[in-house]
TrEMBL record:
GO terms assigned for molecular function: DNA binding; DNA-binding transcription factor activity
Name under which the protein is recorded: DNA-binding MarR family transcriptional regulator
Entries under Pfam families matching the protein: MarR_2
Keyword Zinc: no
Gene3D superfamilies assigned: Winged helix-like DNA-binding domain superfamily/Winged helix DNA-binding domain
Lineage: superkingdom: Bacteria
Start and end residues of each HTH marR-type domain: 4-136
Keyword Transcription regulation: yes
InterPro entries for the chain: HTH_MarR-typ, WH-like_DNA-bd_sf, WH_DNA-bd_sf
Species of origin: Bacillus oleivorans
């Protein structure tokens, strides 16, 4: 039991450290890790509903609502009513977000490279594989 506890504690601590590093990298742009997650998913997956964002990012509705409202206030996303169901709104990146996205991504990639600089490529690939497998197991 102790080994499992230590493993999950380590994963949790790593997650916190990664969030802190990401917040520091994005600080010059007044964006936080939760906002970056939404911006990144919308950029890579296209327009999604708030419910779809919650499901994909494993975030409860109230914090997602706050994140989306902050992004709307910053001018980075807008809500588009569904043509099929007016109660459903899609979240879409604005032109402002699309214009600024490359700079945000550059800062994140620089941080990623810095964090992995002393981590051997073979270990990175093994870790990537293990994390994908674990993520699949968690979603079952």
């Amino acid at each position: 039991m102790k080994n499992n506890h230590d493993l999950f504690h380590t994963i949790h601590q790593l997650s916190r450290q990664l969030h802190k590093s990401l917040n520091e990298a994005l600080q010059p742009f007044s964006i936080y890790s939760a906002q970056w997650s939404v911006l990144f998913v919308l950029k890579t997956k296209g327009n999604l509903t708030q419910s779809e964002l919650c499901d994909y990012l494993s975030v409860e509705a109230p914090p997602m609502t706050r994140t989306i409202q902050r992004l709307i206030k910053q001018g980075y996303v807008k809500q588009i009513p569904s043509k099929e169901d007016k109660r459903v709104k899609y979240i879409q990146l604005t032109e402002k977000a699309l214009a600024e996205y490359p700079e945000w991504e550059k800062a994140v990639l620089k941080m990623n490279e810095s964090l992995l600089a002393d981590f051997p490529k073979s270990s990175q690939e093994e870790l990537r594989k293990l994390l994908r497998e674990f993520s699949i197991q968690l979603r079952k």
